[in-house]
Amino acid sequence: MALTCGPTEFKARFPEFSTITDPRIQIFIDDSMLLINETTWGKLYSIAVCYLTAHYLALAEQSSNGDSGSVGNVASQAVDGTSISFNNPAMSSTSQAFYNSTSYGQRFYSLIRSLGIGASTV
């Protein structure tokens, strides 16, 4: 099965990463391909690679920008006191909590669940 998630396809799917260089995106694609078994994922392989790539790339970009990477549903916020609270659903595993840290990871985790496999077998 041919991979259809190269930098060009990745940027078409995720235009929010359009300013990231193709070589940097390719590094994360390569990393994702090492972690995802093509036989297990079948026809979802390419989309899984894209979402896992986006997850890792988003975390890397947040880190390089000094962001803590906190992501979730905002429950409350304050302006002058600079306070924000998140309402995250209960996590059943450490892996799920890791994937919940970005919207791309959340989508990737939902793909894992659709296959009926645990995150440890990706």
Walk me through the topology.
Layout: H1 7-13, H2 22-35, H3 38-41, H4 45-64, E1 73-78, E2 83-87, H5 94-99, H6 103-115
Antiparallel strand pairs: 1-2
Helix pairs in contact: 2-4, 4-6
Please give a handful of descriptors for the protein shown.
52% helix, 6 helices, 122 residues, mainly alpha, 9% strand
Explain this structure to me?
By secondary structure, this protein is mostly helical. It has six helices and two strands, in the order ααααββαα. The chain has helices at 7-13, 22-35, 38-41, 45-64, 94-99, 103-115, and strands at residues 73-78, 83-87. The protein has a two-stranded antiparallel sheet with strand order 1-2. α2 (22-35) crosses α4 and α4 (45-64) packs antiparallel against α6 (103-115). The longest helix has 20 residues, at 45-64.
In short:
The protein is mainly α.
**Largest sheet report:** 2 strands, antiparallel
* Structural shape: globular
The span between the termini is 17 Å
Strand content: 5-15%
Q: Topology as H/E string?
A: HHHHEEHH
The neighbouring-strand order within the major sheet is 1-2
- Rg is 16 Å
- Total beta strands: 2
What average pLDDT do the residues reach?
80
- Helical content, roughly? 40-55%
Uncertain stretches of 5 or more adjacent residues: none
Number of helices: 6
Label the structural class: mainly alpha
